[in-house]
Write a structure and sequence with these properties.
The complex is a heterodimer of chains A (247) and B (298). With 247 residues, chain A is mostly helical. In chain A, 80% of the residues lie in helices and 0% in strands. Chain A has ten helices and no strands. Classes of the chains: A mainly alpha (247), B alpha/beta (298). Chain A binds chain B through residues 3, 6-7, 9-11, 14, 17-19, 21-22, 76, 79-80, 83-85, 87-88, 90-95, 246-247, and chain B through 53-57, 70, 73, 76-77, 79, 81, 83, 85-92, 96, 99-101, 103-106, 143, 147. Bound molecules: adenosine-5'-diphosphate (ADP) and magnesium ion.
């Protein structure tokens, strides 16, 4: 038992090290959201939205977490599959659940750090003044939502061709972010687009924090939608992985 | 305790869509032995190893590893493997990768020792992905040995290694075998098998075609041969009717005749005044012996 624990912990640590060393992670999840934040809060006022900087910080933090979970995570899983690493692990005593669990746990820990860094950078530089409880709840919402995108990343990672995965993940990342209103608020979109946005997990990721900073009541069904997406992605990827292993 | 082999494969077949990769193969490997699974590319070696490790399911037949199921964690903690076509993990250093694998086992070998036996002491702090092909194979060996396994699987282990690395590698494997470990390796060189293994199981097209000590296989398969440059007027038909010719290999103007009795054959050839120049008589090297064996099986 303690052996499994020790192995899982070592696996978590290794996954965290690998993520932090990954340049794509640093670019997509920290530099790009931070740059977008400064550009769009510097040049626009969000159509007169009174807490535009806070609103956009929530959008960009979500955007960063989605990128980490979707783009870097999926490609790593796919590469490990293509390079035979997963096969090699299957003949070690490491339980296969421990591999997935430590990946998710490590990414979860990384996402906490990522949210803190972006909140601090944006909050301090633009003097965003929010109650501590709002910071915490908004951060937790984004963090929890991150798991739905990890599950999507895991699903993309079941494909062996990591170049295809990279392209597909990037397209999904950008389109989901735009349609879900992470780049531009959905309120600035035509009605039809606003309706479509409600179906995206990216919109649901921002929905809670946007309500929180505006002092509006929080619609908890948003978390429910994210949970449904997560379960759906997990079930499909578990099914595909089982099929791939049964050779 | 009753005697129990390390590996037992019983009448195993693996059918891919339109290809029978392993065909009714039976093999028992005793504990403490060093066995080479020998065969040309595509013979079914990797498929066999994959089935023993539980990475592939046999279409029919049974496989037992250490008396149990290879999917059993208790069994997995007693084995180690270097698989074919496995690359290294990205963004981890050599030392970190080895330590990660050490954490999977309850009684791992010390990191220093694993670095020493893989000859990667100086590369410890380098990213694994930056290693050369041969160094990556050696890292794979360190990972296979990390848990101090009882049974070690080595699938084409020396591909990409240079001469020095190869020598260190075989020394280490020999030392492990000396400590009573069971080693199952695959190779397509009889010479490699001869240097290290005390048993060679030769497979071709998924079937076992010979099984014994490498030297006995060598002896049974070695046909002696006579080779010469053919003169203009010589034809294949002229040679075929010469008694004692087992096989003819014709490359350009160079001809090789296989025979079990080359002394007699050379006499006959000279007597019949065959148009031949630059005559040589060979006692068949290892590789030739192996090739003969494969030819015979077809
Ligand atoms: N996953 C697979 N699907 C279909 N055919 C395969 C698969 N794996 C191996 N084969 C085929 O089975 C045969 C044996 O392959 P393999 O065991 O890799 O040979 P070896 O390791 O001796 O070179 C080859 O003809 C190969 O093409
Ligand atoms: Mg092979």
């Amino acid at each position: 038992m303690s052996q499994t624990y020790r192995a899982t912990w070592a696996q978590c640590r290794a996954e965290m090290l690998r993520t932090i060393r990954n340049r794509r992670f640093v670019f997509f999840s920290i530099l790009m959201p931070a740059a977008f934040f400064f550009i769009f809060t510097g040049t626009m006022d969000g159509g007169g939205m009174h807490n535009w900087a806070a609103y956009y910080l929530m959008s960009m933090t979500s955007y960063g977490v989605v990128g980490a979970s979707l783009v870097t995570f999926s490609q790593r899983v796919s590469r490990e599959r293509a390079q035979g690493w997963i096969r090699l692990l299957r003949m070690t005593p490491l339980p296969s659940g421990a591999y997935v669990l430590s990946k998710a746990a490590a990414q979860g820990a990384i996402n906490i750090g990522l949210i803190l860094v972006l909140f601090l950078t944006g909050g301090l530089s633009k003097s965003i003044d929010l109650p501590a409880s709002v910071w915490i709840e908004a951060g937790l919402w984004i963090w929890a939502g991150g798991f739905a995108f990890m599950a999507l990343g895991m699903l993309l990672g079941t494909m062996r061709n990591s170049d295809v995965v990279q392209v597909l993940a990037t397209i999904l990342y950008m389109s989901l972010s735009i349609v879900g209103g992470l780049w531009m608020p959905t309120s600035a979109m035509p009605q039809i687009m606003q309706t479509i946005a409600k179906f995206t997990p990216t919109y649901r990721m921002g929905q809670g924090p946007w309500a929180l900073i505006g002092g509006q009541p929080v619609d908890w069904s948003g978390i429910g939608v994210l949970a449904v997406y997560m379960i759906l992605f997990m079930v499909v990827s578990a099914y595909i992985m089982k099929k791939q292993e049964a050779v | 305790m009753k005697h129990e082999p390390a590996i037992q494969i019983d009448n195993v077949t693996k059918q891919f869509k339109d290809k029978k990769a392993v065909d009714r193969l039976s093999l028992t490997i005793e504990k403490g032995s060093v066995t080479a699974l020998l065969g040309p590319n595509g013979a079914g070696k990797t498929t066999t190893v994959s089935m023993i490790l539980g990475l592939m399911k046999p279409t029919s037949g049974t496989v037992k590893l250490l008396g149990g199921d290879p999917h059993d964690r208790a069994v997995r903690s007693r084995i180690g493997a270097m698989l074919q076509d496995t690359s290294v993990i990205d963004d981890l250093k050599v030392g970190e990768t080895i330590d990660l694998f050490r954490s999977y086992y309850s009684r791992p070998l010390p990191l220093e020792r694993l670095l020493a036996i893989s000859g990667l002491g100086a590369e410890r702090g380098k990213l694994a992905a930056s290693l050369s092909g041969g160094q990556q194979r050696r890292l794979g060996f360190a990972l296979a040995a990390a848990g101090d396994p009882e049974v070690l699987f080595l699938d084409e282990p020396t591909v990409g290694m240079d001469v020095t690395a190869r020598a260190l590698f075989w020394d280490t494997v020999r030392a492990m075998a000396g400590k009573g470990k069971t080693v199952l390796m695959t190779t397509h060189y009889l010479e490699e098998a001869d240097q290290i293994a005390d048993r060679a199981a030769v497979i071709s097209q998924g079937r076992l075609i010979a099984d014994g000590t490498p030297s006995s296989i060598k002896a049974s398969a070695t046909g002696r041969s006579i080779s010469f440059t053919a003169g203009e007027s010589l034809t294949r038909d002229m040679l075929l009717v010469v008694p004692g010719v087992a096989d003819i290999d014709w490359k350009g103007s160079r001809v090789r005749l296989y025979s079990t009795d080359t002394d007699r054959l050379i006499g006959v050839l000279l007597e019949r005044k065959m148009p031949m120049r630059d005559i040589e008589i060979q006692s068949g090297g290892l590789e030739e012996a192996f090739q003969n064996l494969l030819k015979k099986a077809q």
